[in-house]
Design brief:
The protein is α/β, with parallel strands linked by helices. Helix content is 66%, strand content 16%. The protein has helices spanning 2-119, 164-180, 196-205; strands spanning 122-130, 140-149, 152-158, 186-190, 208-210.
Length: 219
């Protein structure tokens, strides 16, 4: 009888342990299922993040391509604007040069007409070829305006604008004329725009400068 009781107790103990183990296995299975769900959720999130990163990369690549295209268009536009600016500047320079030449010729002709017709003063556009190249450092034509009255000889330079190099060129013309012909009584520059450096040089060389022709005293 004792053996049966002991056996029953052991069986009951084994049953209890089996139940406990069963509960543990069920708990472990539940935890594994939860972990699997978490892993699946994490994998889904990683896949979603990867998809977003790929979309962002595609957008960055598209934006980069657009920026490169815009940079190219900007460079081409800038190049065309520079060309246009150069053409406009060249056109303005050409117009200014033609305007200056035409203005000088018109003023010279007007001054000649007034002085000769109203005051009996001779105005000569002197032109001579400089074989030795003393004026322009090479053989070239020398042109200078002469105003002559009662033996007085005035060498005159009429220009729309006068730079320092222009003033030096006029001084060389004066030297050429005086060496080959006669001494000038006065040397005059008439120009509405004379650079300050040209004014300083004119003062050193004894050349008179005037902004308007009516400031010149011929008597």
């Amino acid at each position: 009888k004792l053996n049966w009781q002991e056996n029953n107790r052991r069986w009951e103990e084994n049953d209890r342990r089996w139940e406990e183990n069963k509960l543990r296995w069920e708990e472990n299975n539940r935890r594994w299922e939860e972990n699997n769900q978490r892993w699946e959720e994490n994998e889904r999130r990683w896949e979603e993040n990867n998809r977003r990163w790929e979309e962002n990369n595609q957008r960055w690549e598209e934006n980069t391509r657009r920026w490169e295209h815009n940079d190219q268009l900007h460079a081409e536009t800038k190049k065309e604007l520079n060309k246009l600016g150069q053409r406009i500047e060249s056109g303005i320079s050409a117009m200014g040069a033609r305007w200056g030449i035409n203005s000088e010729a018109a003023f010279r002709n007007g001054l000649k007409g007034i002085l000769e017709d109203s005051f009996g003063i001779e105005v000569i556009n002197f032109m001579e070829f400089d074989q030795e190249g003393t004026v322009f450092d090479r053989p070239d034509q020398v042109e200078i305006d002469l105003i002559i009255k009662n033996g007085t000889v005035i060498l005159c330079e009429l220009k729309s604008s006068m730079s320092k190099s222009d003033m030096l060129s006029f001084a060389r013309k004066i030297a050429y004329y005086e060496n080959h012909h006669r001494k000038a009584t006065r040397k005059i520059v008439i120009s509405p725009m004379i650079h300050p450096s040209a004014l300083s040089l004119a003062k050193e060389l004894g050349i008179e400068t005037y902004s308007f022709a009516d400031q010149i005293e011929l008597d």
